[in-house]
Amino acid sequence: MKTFRLLPLLVAVSAALASPARAQSLVDLYESARKFDAAYLSARSQYDATLAKANQARAAVLPTANLALGVSRSTQEITPDIGPKTDRSYGTENATISASQPLYRPGNWAGYQQGLKQLDLAQAQLTSADQDLVVRVSQAYFDVLAAQDNLTFVKAQKAAVAEQLASAKRNFEVGTSTITDTREAQARFDLVTAQEIAAENDLRVRQMALDQLVGLSDARPQPLAQPLALPALLPADVNAWVQQSETSHPGIKQSQIALDVAQLETRKAEAGHKPTLDLTASYSAIKNLDGTSITPVGSRVNAGTVGLSFNLPLFAGFSTQNRIKETLALEEKARNDLEGAKRAVALGTRTAFFGVLSGQSQVRALEAAEASSQSALDANKLGYQVGVRINIDVLNAQSQLFDTKARLAKARYDVLVGGLKLRQANGTLKADDLQGVNALLGK
Q1: CB of 414 within 8 A of CB of 334?
Q2: pLDDT digits (tens, 9 = 90+) for 298-323
Q3: Closest listed residue to residue 209, CA positions, set 133, 148, 143
């Protein structure tokens, strides 16, 4: 019976050990990061807070109503010049409900419009945070792949150097080569061993950074499919990317909103010279228990009022004039900040655009260099076998080939991340853009 009970457990453990951990795509890890990354979640909370704050501005143009209740008890002592002293106690209960509706308050309406601008600001800030998360996840994702490739190439180079070291030792033993070949191969083997240790540590650090970002204990990014054809950069005109940024970039939108808010602040300041008009209404009920200080007879008084409240500022010690000067200066500052943001975004977009073009050219050049390095290594191995090349020539050719392979893999990753950074630079980056990169991953 115990054997039969243990069978399901043994089968489950065997299946878990036999099946490798499933690799995650870039989109999978991005979705995990949206639920875990502290910086993004902080931006989301700030977005919710800004929405709530924007709705507060409506209160200045909506009616207000208040209810007031009161109970009091009074004791009165009367001591006449002639006659006995008398004491009397009486109570009062009162209830008042009042309401007010602004009819003409230019400052309040400007504040309400500023609140509406806060909604647009919150959306722009959240968009910026989302774009930043897309780039950070993509960068961490491909950093891990690059570190994995680098370690793989170093291990392959170590195996090739070990093979060359063994060959040099055999040739020395039979007298067809000198001890110099053996020592050169040994020195290169020791160097590659040190590079392997550094590559393993770099992969460990990159993996920890990715895990911390996406909230997983052992994220496994899917590698790129091979052979890989990098997508073309479209549109191919840098000016088209710059033009898109003027209407799409969240940083420009935030600066434009700041200018609009500053202009509305000037309108609020100018409203300090203008009159205000409110519609007011109230209804009150007062019940006198046991009379009042004048009469001993209880009574009830009901009173209702409806009216207009008009206020015209006459003089405030030049406060309003100086406030207007302040807001005009801040408005000019916001206008200059907007222009500065546009220039910075345009420069960043152009820099990112030409960076992607340069990266694509580097990939093509490194692909040609990889083929040339492979041919050079084959030629050096053949020359070493026939005696026209020495061991160091083969070692150098091996080192050049694996270094080129690592640089080529890194250049491809940089182009893919650079394309996302280009879209971030001109403000058009969306989470859906990850689907295009996801399509290049292996199954």
Answers
A1: no
A2: 778 899 999 999 999 999 999 999 99
A3: 143
Domain with CATH 1.20.1600.10 in the chain: 23-61+106-275+319-438
Residue ranges, CATH 2.20.200, the chain? 66-104+276-311
Q: Which of 404, 224, 419, 255 is nearest to 340 (CA)?
A: 255
**φ, ψ for residue 24, nearest 5 deg:** -105, 145
Buried-state track 372-394, b at ≥16 Cβ within 10 A, e below 16: ebeebbeebbeebeeeebbbbbb
| pLDDT of res. 21 | 60
Please state, in angstroms and rounded to a whole number, the distance separating the CA atoms of residues 56 and 108: 12
**Interatomic CA distance for residues 327 and 325, integer angstroms:** 6
Contacts of 51 (CB under 8 A, 6+ apart): 118, 119, 122
Span 127-144, mean pLDDT?
97
Across 311-345, b (16+ Cβ under 10 Å) vs e yields eeeeeeeeebeebbeebbebbeebbebbeebbeeb
Instruction: Quick: pLDDT tens for 351-371.
Output: 999 999 999 999 999 999 999
Residue 64, helix vs strand vs coil: strand
Q: C-alpha 336: how far from its chain's center?
A: 25
Reply yes or no on domain 66-104+276-311 having CATH 3.40.50: no
Confidence of residue 291 (pLDDT cuts 50, 70, 90): low
CATH topology of domain 23-61+106-275+319-438: Outer membrane efflux proteins (OEP) (1.20.1600)
* pLDDT tens-digit series, residues 191-215: 999 999 999 999 999 999 999 999 9
Structure tokens at 156: 């392959």
This prediction's pTM: 0.85
Read off the tokens for 41. 């979640």
Q: Which two tokens stand for residue 111?
A: 């504040």
User: What are the CA-CA distances from residue 214 to residues 26, 31, 105, 199 (Å)?
Assistant: 11, 8, 50, 23
